[in-house]
Input
Amino acid sequence: MDRKSCPKSGSISCNAARSIRFLPNLIERTLQRGWRAAVQATSQERLAAIDDLLWTFAEESFLAHGSAAQGDPELQPVWLTLGPDNPNGSQVRFLLEGAAPILSPNRITPA
Output
């Protein structure tokens, strides 16, 4: 199997506010591989900024996304959230500004 057909759950952490300017490109690459994404932030204000960014980052395109406010997570390729929820079945999670990572039950953690 190639890498595209065998996604692994993973997360990318963005600590600096200016690093979110790279987020649309990272999400585009995620979606091009056929994966879904979740973006987890620590404040409603940051989620609103990400929402705006994903609609306006390029004149010729946008990234379809949603959150609990819009509903229908199964239709959303990108889910914006403040918590550990994963209702769109994302394989990649972007953690912004100290958002707490989710420990996968498949991940081995040291005791």
User: Anything to note?
Assistant: The first helix runs from residue 23 to 32. The chain has a mean pLDDT of 81.
